[in-house]
User: What shape does this take?
Amino acid sequence: MKKILLGVFALLFSLTLAIMPADAARKPKRALPPPAVDVTINISSQEMSVHVNGWPYAYWDVSTAREGYHTPRGSYRAIRMAKVYYSKKYDNAPMPNSVFFYGGYAIHGTGHIRALGRPASHGCVRLHPTNAARLFALVQKYGMSRTRITLVD
Assistant: This one.
């Protein structure tokens, strides 16, 4: 009985290797490292929480898309950063300390600080300029690939 079970196991194992791509048999897939900078934006409350290496770092008011515009939901990695940036789509509006996470959507500083805490943007996530600079420095320090940005309702 043991020989039969071992034979069946050997057959299944060899079939698995036969249908598996050659490089997959040699290299185990590596999981993404956990995010060092974990940003969560709550669109309903217009608040952002930032955790660094699992520890609470900051809670800031934000402005996301006002009526007629959209801020994407989901979980993203930072894809691009710009210390100084001007919107090509919206009248060269300044977007200091931009951390882009999806196409042209970014977290960035704003001069419209009185609107923070309520929807006011064209879709980006606006922060107080000081807080945007702090977030930019964190992402720069730990790296874009170790930064997760999650937007929830």
About this structure: The chain has three helices and nine strands. The longest helix spans residues 2-19.
